[in-house]
Amino acid sequence: MTDPLAEADVRRVLDADGRVLPDAEPPDLSDDRLVAIYRDMRITRHFDERAVSLQRQGRIGTYAPCAGQEGSAVGSTHALDERDLISYQYREHGSIVTRDLLAEYLPYWLGHESGTAAILEGNVFPLQIDVAAHLPHAVGAAWAFDYRDDDRIVACHFGDGATSEGDFHEALNVAGVFDLPTLFCCHNNGWAISVPRSRQTASDTFAEKAQAYGFDGIRVDGMDPLASYAATREAATRARDPDASPSPTLIEFVEYRYGAHTTADDPTVYRDEDELERWRSIDPIDRMETFLRETGRIDAEGIEAIGAEAEDVVAEAIEATADLQVDPGEMFDHVYAERPSTLDRQREELLELIEKHGADAFEQGE
Ligand SMILES: Cc1ncc(C[n+]2csc(CCOP(=O)(O)OP(=O)(O)O)c2C)c(N)n1
Ligand SMILES: [Mg+2]
Question: Containing H/E element for 355?
Fold first, then answer.
């Protein structure tokens, strides 16, 4: 199978098979931390499978699968301090797993407002379905840290599609002008639903857009967790250092989503099976497993134990939500500080319709 990034100018530590490249060094991390990166990716992959199945069972309305993209989300989050803020789009579940927030987060996908508030405790902003709308908020948070001489930084995740929104350009411009400690983590998975990368930008890369705002842009193999870690760590160290400038960095993680855009999408209509198979050949979990195994950091038994742990962690998070009752009226509660009468009316209408036809009568989708 041809490595899809063989010719690409992307930073890598591991080759397509998971062996350290001759001109690269693995990041200087303890064995425990390296194994934790692998474990968090396994938990994320398993969570993804279970979430898709919960959607099929009707417990989740719509879900955005992340399989294939665990390396960048998990690797980059391990490179932050726990007090650093994460602001993300909707597919970077690996960041949530790394912050150990799965049980707090799952209720969001089951339709509970509590799932967004709870992850704030772990310094993660609520996810953002409105593409790129979170970028200005992330920069605002970075500005607040800077203003208070707090050395926390912000890692803001978004997709390639988000770079076509005005919010992207406004946010990067402000971060550049005011030199704010923000890592812009662009997950270039080649597609924005069915829109290919070639229709998203005329630039050669997403990383090079950073030049227009006065800071660096780097391209990383996002399916290489160690390169994702190393690139994020370097950018984070600079962002945190009050004497270093420029503080922001745009990191383009080049990667692929194996599954559908969301459970409401059918990618076979616009993507080709060969493309998918090529990207699967550089799977982040397989590569990390090879690295750990061949460097003597884990054996078959350890791998099996982590598989069992991943199942337990996800099962526990799901079990913890077993008794949660969804209240559809809740969705109107947090739009305004005080609900206007127009929303009161919509809420009443919805509750009356549900009373009459039952909640299942409403088709759920994006
Ligand atoms: C402002 C806005 N426009 C359109 C949509 C519909 N929409 C949802 S996801 C998406 C594609 C986003 O693609 P990308 O940023 O590449 O992220 P990915 O889904 O690939 O992770 C679109 C157009 C939206 N949610 N928000
Ligand atoms: Mg995309």
Answer: helix 341-357
